[in-house]
Amino acid sequence: MGLSDIAAGIEVTAEQRNRGVATTDDTETSLDERLAPFADELPCQPTAAARLLDAYADGASIGRAAAVAGVPPTDASKTLYRLGEPIDPLSPTAERVIDDWLAGELSRTEARTLANVGDAEFALGVYVATHEPIEGAEHAVADALAIDRRTDPLADTRGDVEEWM
Fold first, then answer.
1. Count: domains in the chain
2. Is residue 38 assigned to a domain?
3. What is the pLDDT of residue 33?
4. Other CB atoms closer than 10 Å to residue 34's CB: what's the count?
5. Looking at the domain assignment, is residue 155 inside a domain?
């Protein structure tokens, strides 16, 4: 059986409507202004969060970006996590230990020992387990965290959409 046999009798009964592409343009608004609505949920002020994101997007480590923004590294990690970055210092086993500790089945000392992480990693892991990324914040910072293909050192290793067409 060939394709022509399979397609025999198929006909188009409806037309597709071209609805266009939905676009948003936040380039007129500064990053700290876009972060202002989320100020109550962020671990640091929107201006510090904007400096943090700029440094982080430029390739700085979380610790270096935190220094540029003038915030503690743990607060920087929390801020990036709340803004949608996938930050989690714990292994899956350590995450289960944290869940047991949060459920009251382990003492903090036991949980820290079983998780086999330092105090800062433990605290950040608990924060990640007890908080969700802020709804809508990822969209507000998407352009700040987007990879610029012109300056991306790994650009030649990534394919384009045209390759799949």
1. 1
2. yes
3. 87
4. 19
5. no
